[in-house]
Amino acid sequence: MKFIKMIPNMLTLGNLYCGFLSIGFAAHGQYNNAAILIIIGMMLDSMDGRAARMLKADSTLGKELDSLADVVTFGVAPSFLVYYTYFYQFGSIGLLVSGLFPLFGAYRLARFNIGTSKQSMHYFIGVPITAAGGILAILTLFGHWVPSIITTVVFTALCFLMVSRIRIPSLKDIPLPKYGTIVTIFLGCMLFVLYKGTYGSYPYLIYIATPLYIAYLAYRFKKNQNNKTSD
């Protein structure tokens, strides 16, 4: 029973480890691997909170751990990825600018953590760091077709949007299978294009993560159907 209660935290730690691995791959010039790991981190991040509620394993420890993992996977890792792919050409200034992204992201997370739970169920104030980091990862994946100036503008905009007071609609009210399946299909199509001839090393991470994510979505869908039937 204790092991089951630990599952949400294990998913969160998996998210954190993806961020660490992403930084390592980026440092070795394997930018596609680094970006894919951030996306896998997004998949795990979308699962841990729901798993905690499903297993009735919500805890203060889990919430704090989730924030720490998000800073690494969606703050530090994307900033290193952008530095190694775009900002490296500006030397030390590029490194300093890249470091602003996790600073804005950490501030946004801290502000979110002290916000009211009622407010967070309907909308986010500012762009969530998970979405911001994921956008940078996707831009890097399609870096051959995206001009550097666009990535620079998006990077700068996301920094300020994370700490802005703009209300972003929350997807928490949308049933998981609806958008979860769309995300999975999108990832499958995108990875097919990438792996067709460019992705060579360590492909098994996504081959393991995607089926597990699909299985999780199928389980949630079946549970929701059973709940509707019982009602």
From TrEMBL:
Record's catalysed reaction(s): a CDP-1,2-diacyl-sn-glycerol + L-serine = a 1,2-diacyl-sn-glycero-3-phospho-L-serine + CMP + H(+)
Enzyme class: transferase
TM annotation in the entry: 92-110, 122-139, 145-164, 176-195, 201-219
Source taxon at top rank: Bacteria
The entry's keywords: Lipid biosynthesis, Lipid metabolism, Membrane, Phospholipid biosynthesis, Phospholipid metabolism, Transferase, Transmembrane, Transmembrane helix
Family indicated by similarity: Belongs to the CDP-alcohol phosphatidyltransferase class-I family.
PROSITE patterns in the cross-refs: CDP_ALCOHOL_P_TRANSF
Lipid biosynthesis found in the keyword field: yes
Name of the protein this chain belongs to: CDP-diacylglycerol--serine O-phosphatidyltransferase
Topological relation to the membrane, as annotated: Multi-pass membrane protein
Cellular location(s): Endomembrane system
Primary site of residence: membrane
Gene: pssA
